[in-house]
Amino acid sequence: MSSVSAPRAQPLHFHPPRPTLRFGIRAISGRFNRGRWWAIGLTQLPFLGLCWAQWNGQPLVGFDFLRQKIHLFGSLLGPQDLLLLTLLLIGGALALFVTSAVGGRIFCGFACPQSVYTALFIWIEQKVQGTPGLRQRRQIQGAWAAACSRKLLTWALWALVALALGWTLTAYFSSGPDLWRRTWQGEVGSVETTLMLGYAVFAFAQAGFLREKVCQHMCPYARFQGVMGTPHTQSVMYDAPRGEPRRAATVANSHMQAAPASALATGDCIDCNLCVEVCPAGIDIRNGLQYECISCGLCIDACDRVMLKSRRPTGLIRFASQKGADWRDTLRQPRIRMYAALLGLTLLGIATTAALRVPLQVEVVRDRSVLARQLRNGDIENIYRVHIQNYDTQAHTYDIRVVSDAALYIPAPAPVHIASGEERTLAVSVVQPYRADARAPAPSIIPLTLSVRSQTSAEQQRSRSSKFILPR
After folding, report:
1. Can you tell me the distance from the alpha carbon of 284 to that of 218, in angstroms, rounded to the nearest whole number?
2. I want to staple 451 with a disulfide (CB 3.0 to 4.6 A). Which of 95, 194, 293, 463 is the partner?
């Protein structure tokens, strides 16, 4: 296999830039195009379906920020699970780093929502308005009425898809079945309406009109992805030594001036410009590595198709590295090993945190509005506010106990029943019995611990320290 390097200047074969005005992106079939549609299905089907899924009467995936709860695949997360949520975000970032170091911007080309929705909107545009060549012929023929009607129909279908995406995003914050019922009854709240329409307008503008401009000028990932890449990173590259000089340009130059026979040797590129017509970013990969390239591989499909028709070997445009290394050499690079090690440690931390997680949150505060007081029988009483939050997926009945070196007790302790995801604040009385025969002076402050434990699960137990105040 010939080595791949950045194309060098060809003094006898200058290729002036072609016009950038396009009537649309040309459709192409091939293995990378099929891979993109598989990626669209694998990302969008869960997105559209998980908002409807329920688990024990609760959303399988849902975000309830008002109650500070996150439903995540049968688990109920709260503010005390901030470490777990942080590790999940760090793991996602490290996975993106590994992907970028191995395959460049392959995430952008196959899984990024901007690319996914842009591909979906382009497919609708091509089905309604036809191929770019057909649109150009309609414009030349002056068929303005038909072109406008097709464009309006395209925009209407885009709006329906954008509204569906906005409604689905809102369903993750309001429960899909309940939001669906309230949508048909016209009872959607103002906050939900704002989120739904806002995201719909955002998706309509981003995927319908801005498209590659988002990747080129707005997305920060397009800027710093070069920092994560190495000369061994596999990216979409053009084999310049094999493709240059292009055959069409050689024929043109041969009429202008005489050149040596070695200079007139033709390359495999026929300068059909098909790789530019199918590129979602509108770049010419033959000009070398460019940050606008999202590594979608559509130019590879187009070039391989032309090579097969020309009876030449495929791979003129392919995934390759600047060093000519294969995928195995790329995976052995120190940076990728470091990213993979950090990702492994993060996944280990996520597993450990999830295994040691106790879905119970307890806070104990001594009631400052009720001072320590002496009862009629001489006992001393303190009041505590015990706040219990059940972050388990099932209801629990909890016992509250006091632990102290002194003779403290809770009079008539009663179990408290708290449903899944619910919280309750209780007033708990702690009493020190009166001792008429006590001779030694009692301390004014006695440390104690209030323990909350589930009757059905011994692992669900939390203890909080506090102080018992004695009146002087």
Report:
1. 20
2. 463
Geometric angle at alpha carbon 362, from 356 and 363, rounded to 5°? 135
**Structure-token pair, residue 441:** 């002076």
Tell how far CA 165 is from the center of its chain. 15
Q: What is the pLDDT of residue 444?
A: 81
Which of 342, 357, 372 is the endpoint of a domain?
A: 357
pLDDT in tens, 32-64: 999 999 999 999 999 999 999 988 888 999 998
Report the distance separating Cα 226 and Cα 386, nearest Å: 53
Full domain range(s) for residue 440: 360-469
State whether 308 and 392 are in the same domain: no
- Kindly tell me the sign of the dihedral angle through the C-alpha atoms of 291, 295, 299, 300: positive
Q: How many structural domains does the chain have?
A: 2
| Residue 14 pLDDT greater than 60, yes or no | no
What gap in Å lies between CA 99 and CA 106, rounded to an integer?
7
Whether 372 and 327 share a structural domain: no
Q: What is the pLDDT of residues 17-30, one digit of tens each?
A: 444 445 678 889 99
123 neighbors 29 (Cβ within 8 angstroms): no
Q: Mark whether 155 and 199 lie in a shared domain.
A: yes
The string of pLDDT tens digits covering residues 329-356 is 889 899 999 999 999 999 999 999 999 9
pTM of structure: 0.81
Contact by Cβ (8 Å): 101, 109: no
β-bridge mates for residue 373, sequence order = 381
Question: Are 314 and 337 members of one domain?
Answer: yes
Q: What is the pLDDT of residue 9?
A: 39
Is it the case that residue 319 has pLDDT exceeding 50?
Answer: yes
